[in-house]
Amino acid sequence: MRIKQSKKLRSKHFYNGKSKVETSITRVVLQDDLSNNPHCIHGPCILWKTSSMSSPFYGCSSYRSRKECPFFEKFAPNKQIHLVEHETHPHLPFVLERQSRLKALETRGEISYCSTCHLCWQNQGELKTSHQHHHVHKGLSLSQMKHPLSILEPLSANKGEAQFHFTKLTMNVIMSWFKKNKWKNVLCLGAPSVFEALKHENLGARALLLDIDDRLASFYDMNEEWLWFNMFNNHFFLGNESERTFQEFLRSASSDLVIVTDPPFGGKCELIARTLNAITQYWRLYHGILRVPQIFWIFPYFMEHQIISCMDNLYMADFQVDYTNHKTFQNGTGGRKSGSPVRVFTNVDGICLPFPENLGYQFCAPCEKWVSPNNRHCDICGSCTAKNGETYKHCRKCKRCVKKKFSHCKLCNRCALPDHPCNLFRDKSIADPKRQ
Ligand SMILES: C[S@@+](CC[C@H](N)C(=O)[O-])C[C@H]1O[C@@H](n2cnc3c(N)ncnc32)[C@H](O)[C@@H]1O
Ligand SMILES: [Zn+2]
Ligand SMILES: [Zn+2]
Ligand SMILES: [Zn+2]
Ligand SMILES: [Zn+2]
Ligand SMILES: [Zn+2]
Ligand SMILES: [Zn+2]
After folding, report:
1. How is the chain split into domains, by residue range?
2. Measured distance CA(321)–CA(299) in Å, rounded
3. What are phi and psi of 222, to 5 degrees?
4. Which of 92, 267, 277, 317 could form a disulfide with 344 if both were Cys (CB 3.0 to 4.6 A apart)?
5. Which ligand has the shortest distance to the CA of 86?
6. Whose CA is nearest to atom 6 of ligand 1?
7. Cα 338 to Cα 348: distance, rounded to the nearest angstrom
8. How many Cβ atoms sit within 10 Å of the Cβ of residue 55?
9. Which H helix or E strand runs over 174?
10. pLDDT tens-digit series, residues 118-163
């Protein structure tokens, strides 16, 4: 069941092009150091292996559709590594132009923003000459420019960025955790709503946004607020300049460090975990090797096994994260009956993360954490066992809790849906308990 869902997700959000690679399972070949790998415009490439190709290949870390990033190079084990000048991202001149226009904005005077060219200006003449048939937001104030998410269209779900924004309710819950715990230093890794809210709510927290969306150059200062960053290979598009800002943020984060990340759901856990670990290591260099940052990694519940196998200090908090612009990942009309499948993976004690009681969330005393309305504590398992928003039931033969719709099949000796392909499980011996 889990495999089926995760494949479906991948095909929707990540493996969206037409190349052969996308129909087979693609795995990361983990390497300690990526710097000697070939680079595409998105930074160092990843060594990938697919079930349909015999030898590994280097490909883009972030965009897996060849339409988005065509880079492909077969792995040749004995090939000499030549240090070459890496190609810069073709958007670089536009990013610099956006940033200089932002800095030139004056407090008085209406601002226009063209969401076709991603440029802002105050000079009335510019509209007539350059943006006649474009989609232009007119009459913006400087303070409106500080809320880019209300101006920017979310980038398409089919592209690598897969931008889905949290609902107000989800944001309120996340903000309530910040208020309660009084955290002071927050890195938002692909979480622009959290960054925007932290900037405007007076919580006394400093925040830095790391995101690949280069349209943000029209709204945020690139020396203080936003760094153009690829979270799948830990790459800063503007090199040393951004790295200095980033290191300075970590150096002055002596009291704590919170990392909130909401990556595109097709993103490989190994790569996200590697970036989270790298950030942790940099921070420890300044503040001691035993320090542990607070991590919030927002991802679907059925990725639990993959996440925990990359970062075993995280657990799945049973809060359902909702998005404004995602049909499946929201509550109510059009969403799943049992609510959004997206959860928060964290290392913060459950007792520090209350969920809204008025929505039916309950505190489980033996587990010392909040759980979703339909979750029940199983005395045999010793925990609240439901994962998907429904109530699970205990199977004595399997010795664990399983989904409500499952029943125990004597032939397979496992719990499965009543119409499961029984012979398939028996013949191929793939009755893997983790799959439930
Ligand atoms: C699923 S959205 C999360 C947005 C979040 N729900 C919010 O409301 O703030 C994914 C975010 O990650 C960013 N992103 C996508 N690919 C990225 C990459 N390779 N590196 C860094 N950021 C990336 C997108 O631009 C987007 O802001
Ligand atoms: Zn690329
Ligand atoms: Zn324009
Ligand atoms: Zn419990
Ligand atoms: Zn149980
Ligand atoms: Zn069973
Ligand atoms: Zn069976």
Report:
1. 2-74, 92-145, 168-371, 402-435
2. 9
3. -80, 0
4. 317
5. 2
6. 165
7. 25
8. 10
9. helix 168-181
10. 999 998 788 778 898 999 999 999 999 999 999 998 886 455 667 8
Residue 324 CA to its chain's centroid (Å)? 16
Which tokens is 33 given?
A: 């150091």
Mean pLDDT across the chain, nearest whole number? Answer: 88
Q: Which residues pair with 93 in a beta bridge?
A: none
For the segment 413-429, what is each residue's pLDDT rounded down to a tens digit?
Answer: 999 999 998 876 654 44
CA-CA distance, 198 to 229, in Å (whole number)?
20
Checking if the pLDDT of 321 tops 60, the result is yes
DSSP state of 301: G
How far is it, in rounded angstroms, from Cα 161 to Cα 262? 11
Looking at residue 228, what DSSP letter applies? E
Long-range contacts (CB closer than 8 Å, 24 or more residues apart) made by 84-88:
86/39, 87/39, 87/40, 87/41, 88/41, 88/237
Task: Check if 229 has its Cβ closer than 6 Å to any atom of ligand 1.
Answer: yes
- The C-alpha angle 361, 366, 367, rounded to 5 degrees, equals 60
Report every protein residue that has its C-beta within 5 angstroms of ion ligand 4: 364, 367, 377, 384
Does pLDDT of 95 surpass 90? yes
Is-contact 250 256, C-beta < 8 A? no
Homologous superfamily of the 168-371 domain (CATH): Vaccinia Virus protein VP39 (3.40.50.150)
d(CA 236, CA 189): 12
Q: And the tokens for 174?
A: 């996340």
Shortest-distance atom of ligand 1 to CA 194: 9
**Token pair for 301:** 């519940």
For ligand 1, the distance from its centroid to the CA atom of residue 45, given in whole angstroms, is 19
Name the 3-class secondary structure at 28.
strand
Q: Report the candidate in 115, 189, 119 with the shortest Cα–Cα distance to residue 154.
A: 115
In 367-434, where does DSSP find H-type helix? 422-428
Pairwise CA distance, residues 254 & 261, whole Å: 20
Percent of the chain with pLDDT over 90: 73
Residue-wise pLDDT for 171-224, tens only, equals 999 999 999 999 999 999 999 999 999 999 989 999 999 999 999 999 999 999
- Number of the ligand closest to the Cα of 431: 7
User: CA angle at residue 1 from 379 to 350, to 5 degrees?
Assistant: 40
**Structural contact between residues 152 and 211, judged by C-beta atoms closer than 8 angstroms:** no
